[in-house]
Write a structure and sequence with these properties.
Length: 779
Amino acid sequence: MWTQTEMPFFLSNPKWPSDSNHCTWYGVTCSKVGSRVHSLTLPGPALYGKLPPQLSNLTYLHTLDLSNNYFHGQNPQEFSHLNPELIFDVLIIYNDLRGKLPPSFSNLLSLKNLALARNGFVGEIPAQLGNLHYLSYLQLSELFQLNLNNRSGYLPQNFGHVLPNLKNISLASNRFEGLIPNFISNASHLQYIDLAHNNFHGPIPMINNLKNLTHLILGNNFFSSTTSFNFQFFDSLRNSTKLQILMVNDNHLAGELPSSVANLSGNIQQFCVANNLLTGTLPQGMEKFKNLISFNRLSGEIPDIFGNFTNFYILAMGYNQFSGRIHTTIGQSKRLTDLDLGMNRLAGTIPRFFGFLVKIMTQLETMVLSGNQLSGNIPKEIEGLSSFKWLLMAGNKFNGSIPTNLGNLASLETLDLSSNNLTGPIPQSLEKLQYIQTLNLSFNHLEGKVPMKGVFMNLTKFHLRGNNQLCSLNKEIVQNLGVLLCLVGKKKRNSLLHIILPVVGATALFISMLVVFCTIKKKRKETKISVSLTPLRGLPQNISYAVLDLQQSKASQSFSSECQALKNVRHRNLVKVITSCSSLDYKGEEFKALVMQLMPNGNLDVSLYPEDVELNIFIDVASAMDYLHHDCNPPVVHCDMKPVNVLLDENMVAHVAYFGLARFLSQSTSEMQSSTLGLKGSIGYIAPEYGLGGKASTHGDVYSFGILLLEIRVDENEVLKVADRRLIDNYQYSTQSSGIDDHSSGIGSNTHSIRKAEECIAGVIRVGLCCTAHQPKDR
């Protein structure tokens, strides 16, 4: 070995000269009589080379341990020449041996411990290993570490019968497949079973006779189950009273967790059924487990059982469908390090136990509450949990301001408060977070200046998009993070002006509205729209874009309202928005645009009077309004229905567009509806009650639609041009009985068509007049 390993270890070790007594060499133990080598133990001195076949000459060897070295090549066949009655232990883990596992190991009949993990063996386990009747420890993998063995095939079906003394079997991280043989229940001395990270499938075998079992690790396979099978499996573990670790995570287990789960060993320290397809609720009796880890499809309210979980350190119940609230008894878990309740349906506020946690929960490092429906303020007491490293609260309904001293969490590495309703400034204390890697405050309602120091100097570590009131003096932040450029030198106004000016402005606006309504002429006044519609060069012909004129008042607010309104609506008569863009143009000025489906026939504003207008257009508009008012949750009020906002596609099908003034209607009477005192809409189409500060309602849109209908101006010679032949036929079919056949020709036919067209137009006008009734309830 000295010559074949070619390593300086032996040369540098004074006890390895070639002419000295071998029993004094490092790692060598000899017998008292005859100086025969009993043990060669060299784990980890960084030896490399090939295993010398001369090792087989050590015929009195009991233990061979060459673990944690760099031996490579084939496993010597000469190992089978070791004394089969004396050799007990062969440990060669963490090397780089290759080839097939030699069947010659089966000749070592007295072998008790065989560990060959973290090598590069291929092929199947030789069936001859069944001859090792005294084998109690078989390790072809290593728990929780990447295993470099590449074993494959099936486990021999007779393992349980031929290896009755087996206590520890570790075959993780290989490519074994098929069903697990029933040897598990026959090897009654088994204490440790690790078959994780393989390709086993089918049902998990019943564990009936393993009274000494402490670890059962079957995760990351393809096991499947049903509710009835779950009952049988967990019930079969009833006699395994020493069980400490049970991991069946990352499989395809389905059905419900049975009540027999509560019958598991009271010594359970880790119970993991994560990433399966389990459904139903948590069974009663789970309170005796110290660690509960579950990522499934479990539902219902989380039971208030955490007062008994005083020793557990991980509570991971994310990615389920749990509802209800967070129980305050979680605060009694003194050793808790990881709390994951994310991606559920939890509601309510965060319990006020954080002040208590500061005193007793000194080890809590991770708290995940993202993806729920939690609301209320973020408790100020959270500032005292100095052990935090991960704090994820995104995708909830939290409001109020960010705690001022949140930057006191000196160990914080990830802070995600995005997609909430937080307001106020960004706390200056966040500049002190030295170890922060990700700070996400996007899509809230934060305002004020962005801090300039600490994490805010590295654009790759923080995210602020979706906060329209934030500004920065740093042009790089403005350009890359979607915030405004702060105006330098702008003086603060006297606080009294904030009271006087709105009152004076509202009064003047009210008077001006009265004057406007009294002087409206019959002729429709054109209102300038701040959007231009153009085919987008380089993209398909059915794509266009609408660029917002940000020089006009409240243009950015209109853009945000339009994006919000169109985010979840889908209807054939609503304009299809493909995407949106909010950035800076080549001049460094703010640029906002909507990319939408091209409408080649323009808008209804240019089609009210031509001869090819069809009344079907107004049916399309009515269909879109009906969808917005009755099929959206919450209902959407357009607030600016007029001809220029009705676009026409190539088939003259109408599409309602431009939701810059749209409002969402609250279905709760306790919530305040927004006032229309700001005169939302366009003169000539706005409902009268809006001019008096009435609340936005669907009646206002109906009024605007009525004005659209009444704007169809036709004379006696244009009746037939307005109402085409197809519409007349449809109107005639709907108004006459099925038994009457009234078809004529010549002059009589023409007179009949004109009369039917006049009736049709009269009906449309009656609808328009009903829609424009003075009282909203009469429309």
